[in-house]
Amino acid sequence: MSSKLYPWQAGLWQSLAGRSQQAHAYLLHGPAGSGKRALAEHFAAFLLCKASLQQQPCGQCTSCKLYAADTHPDLVRLEPEEEGKGILIASVRELVAKILQTSQQGGRKVVIVEPAEAMTTGSANALLKSLEEPAGSTVFLLISHQFSFLLPTIKSRCVLQACPLPNEQESVQWLQQQSELNEEQCHTVLALASGSPLSAQKLLNADVLAIREQVVSGVKQLFKQHSSPSDLALAWAKMPPELLFEWFCQWAQLILRYKMTEDDSQLGLADMSVVLKHVAPRAPLALLLETQDWLLEHRQKVLRRVPLRADLLLEGLLVRWQALLPR
Ligand SMILES: [Zn+2]
């Protein structure tokens, strides 16, 4: 493991590493894609380091070397066995037993729990006692993307550290350094990633701008009856479905809002605003609401990775979408 902070975390780091005394449990919370895991990892390396210099892990001591090799015996990461699943009570019990043992490197022990909201009530209760009276000098670092889902008993035992997203300027600057995009493209990708620079970077790796262009042009062709739902569904079958559903959900929302408010400034990214504005007054309201429900329902299935045939799913979506603009 290498531990590295993002540039927007300097202030956060100061408030953690600069404490005169370390607490035994921290809860790092904030939106997904703000870099909480990186912060927790760097903090873990720092807490384990035997010779930290100027509030940074030294990178040279045995502890730092073990950390870098991802073999530090006194660092435990508690995660769901499968992404999106809960953290099992058995895993928590195993962890609790482990932290009762003496630390192997003679220093602190660090436990990273991510995401903390994946603990079931049973798992959380099994952890409570350790959180309250940690054995030896164990430090817990809990990471939460959905703070409101956490049990109050867990929150109250931790030092709360909010980890907000960087502002747009900082995000764009960072994205520009990470990619070959110009400033305007960075703003676009950032908007597609709901303001998270790290999610934006993931989208870039998935070639999001090219996909977006192809999808926007496809939707225009569809409304002009120049493409059929089945042709487009076939052409889009290899695109990430969660991305497509995210966009269509947003577009349905924007059409609905414009229909109600006629507010030009609320039409989303420029590439689709003219189309949405054209469709809004013409789409039958009942059909629009029905389409929105369908989209939200199927988006949930996509996010839960329910096995579906991509081409059939997209064709269903596009048939509904085309009907929003009656001939
Ligand atoms: Zn060190």
Q: Could you please describe the fold and organization of this structure?
A:
By secondary structure, the protein is of the alpha/beta class. The chain has 15 helices and 5 strands. It has 3 domains: 7-164, Rossmann fold; 167-205, Helicase, Ruva Protein, domain 3; 211-323. The chain has helices at residues 10-17, 36-48, 62-68, 89-100, 121-132, 152-155, 168-178, 183-192, 197-205, 208-223, 229-236, 241-261, 270-279, 285-303, 310-323; strands at residues 25-29, 75-78, 109-113, 138-144, 159-162. Helix 4 links the parallel strand 2 (75-78) and strand 3 (109-113). Helix 12 runs antiparallel to helix 14 (285-303). The model has no long low-confidence stretch (mean pLDDT 92). Zinc ion is lined by residues 49-51, 57-58, 60-61, 63-64. The site of zinc ion has 9 residues, from helix 3.
